[in-house]
Design goal:
single chain, 169 residues, mainly beta, Elongation Factor Tu (Ef-tu), domain 3, SH3 type barrels, 7-stranded antiparallel β-sheet, 6-stranded mixed β-sheet, 5% helix
Length: 169
């Protein structure tokens, strides 16, 4: 496996509130930079993956507001609050050499340099200082994603990540 299936949904943010009376919503983006979410269209909104295009957009303070096609009043906007914003994996640009998306790492087996299997990557999160792999196995491990120091190799062909890590830690 080199990449997830093209139809995989990738969550890029969520709708966190309404703005005004004309159907605008507040968007919390998980992309870096934060307005990178606006580069993708269409969006898949909520669990039903409603296909929506951004009709209007504005940076607003530390966040952003958007009006989606078909969302023309506050009541329609309020129904979207709490919804995830996703895109299909195939909408993302291909990663450069030695780059990958977090979704590409989920499900890979994590093995130490001494051959001990720690488990499988469940998910990742960012601490600001570095990203963290959450490994689920006999027990949960939290590994800093520090290339070269902790992360020694990512091998998509073998579906494995090699790490320099004490299994008892």
């Amino acid at each position: 496996m080199t990449t997830p299936a093209p139809q995989t949904r990738i969550v890029l943010g969520r709708i966190v509130g309404v703005y005004g009376l004309k159907g605008w919503v507040k968007v919390l983006s998980d992309t870096a930079p934060r307005d990178g979410i606006l580069s993708y269209s269409p969006w898949l909104i909520g669990a039903q993956a409603q296909v929506r295009r951004v009709a209007e957009r504005k940076l607003h303070g530390k966040g952003m507001i958007v009006r989606l096609d078909g969302c023309n009043d506050r009541d329609a906007a309020a129904q979207l609050v709490g919804s995830e914003i996703a895109v299909l994996r195939e909408q993302l640009p291909p990663p450069q050499a030695d780059e990958f998306y977090w979704i590409d790492l989920e499900g890979l087996t994590v093995v130490t340099t001494t051959g001990v299997t720690l488990g499988v990557v469940d998910h990742l999160f960012s601490t600001g200082a570095n990203d963290v792999l959450v490994i689920k196995g006999e027990r949960e491990h939290l590994l800093p994603f520090v290339w070269g120091e902790v992360i020694k190799d990512v091998d998509f062909v073998r579906h494995q990540i090699e790490v320099a890590w004490d299994p008892d830690f």
